[in-house]
Amino acid sequence: MRKMIKQEKKTTQNGDLGIRINGFPGGSIGFELVVRFCYSNGKIALSPANVSLLHCVAAFLEMTEEMSSCNLLHQTETFLEGLFYWTWNEILMAIKACEPFLVHAESSDLLQKLIFALLDKIRANSDVPLTPSLSSSSSSPETNSTFRFSSSTKTPDSAKSSPIKAWWFEDLTLFPPKIIERVLKTMGAYGTQNNRLDVTRFLLLYLKTTGQKQITAIPRDEYGSLADTAVHGVISIGEAAFTCRALFQVLMVVSGFGLSKDCRAQLERLIGVMLDQATLDDLLVSGHDGSVFDVNLVLRLLRVFVNELVSMSSQRLKKVGRLIDKYMGEISPDPSLKVSKFLAVAECLPDSARDCCDGIYRAIDIYLESHPRLSFDERSRLCRCLNYEKLTLESCKDLAKNPRIPPRIAIQALASQRSKVQPAMPMPHHATDEREMPQLNEKEEMRKNLERMQSRVMELEKMCRQMKGQMSKMIKNNVISSPDNHKPLPRLC
Length: 493
What we know:
Blueprint: H1 2-11, H2 27-38, H3 51-60, H4 72-80, H5 88-97, H6 102-107, H7 110-124, H8 169-172, H9 177-187, H10 197-212, H11 224-237, H12 244-254, H13 261-272, H14 280-283, H15 295-307, H16 314-331, H17 339-348, H18 358-370, H19 376-382, H20 393-401, H21 407-417, H22 436-476
Helix pairs in contact: 2-3, 3-4, 5-7, 7-9, 10-11, 11-13, 12-13, 13-15, 15-17, 16-18, 20-21, 21-22
């Protein structure tokens, strides 16, 4: 520094002397500490709270024994030799202190030493060691009385019965993502190497805790590698530790942290093959770009599920069919939901997934009521996902009277029901059970009602054709364009 000052004096003509040191560890705080050391004849009280900064400052300024005996770098190195005798909180404090000058802490190997001490504490107080090998000198003789033994690294066969949290999870959520990355790399559980349940659960808690913070100074894309690491762990363990609902929750947690497309696709595939275990609440994921629900996600999951049909029982398929019918009823009121997207969901499953199409009809009715400006062609196209033969008689009767359903669709639906309602047979003379008479009368009445409704629909269609013919004549004779004829035209079906 004396050399720097002399050089500055030579180049400065106006007498304003100033020195700028770029990249100084800890900034002004670190500089003040080292000045106090120099003006105290090389004496300073070292502690886990300040040793990280002082060590990096000493390395940055090359305060070695060559310059002065018992210099600052030697003192910090001597203090760090007792690192593995520190308490858990002291180690956490020293690692957290490295955050503002992380580059210097890494280049001086200080961060690696602290992480080894951290993992050694966890290893000494857990059932299974977290890292294959640590330094032989890293054995801690102390066991803090507040430590609890954890079994969070069990094999997948018993993973579902293991604790959700280990004792060290909450404390490590205070670290920034860069430090967590270094911890995972030291453990050999970073990226595609992660196949540990405890690490995966910690990362999900870490990301969830970060997501709940309203204000964070760290950009969310810096968490992307941690989100990928968590997903790799989930995929490697799979159904052994995660239910379908848990997988949906995992997807919601990692989606906001720059998850890679490949990891997202793998996670969605794992959810898709378990879709028959999902509930309606699981599927109602908030949408993006103005949409109320994320329908595209459900479509991707359905396509994965359908691709597994070869090895799937009909019960699983029909269970998903009932689930999707309920889902369609929930998303139908969304004003941003297009007809094409509605049909994509309805038609994604094969016809064998539904024994009854009443659920689809109810969803269509809700959609038509919520989208009153649909054209005649759009309303007709919307009904193409209906299998009229799978409608119950009550739903078919409601459809025929529904003013939002095009008349031709109503006729087709009624025609499909004709085979279900045969003419009532004459009652045999030997039928003495009075309970049979109401059933026969009810069936005959239903048949007559169907015939009346079909006749009425045909009359309505005939009236529509006549009105269209009249409109054509009026247009041909230029009646509409005449200034004396501004009467409102009749509304077509």
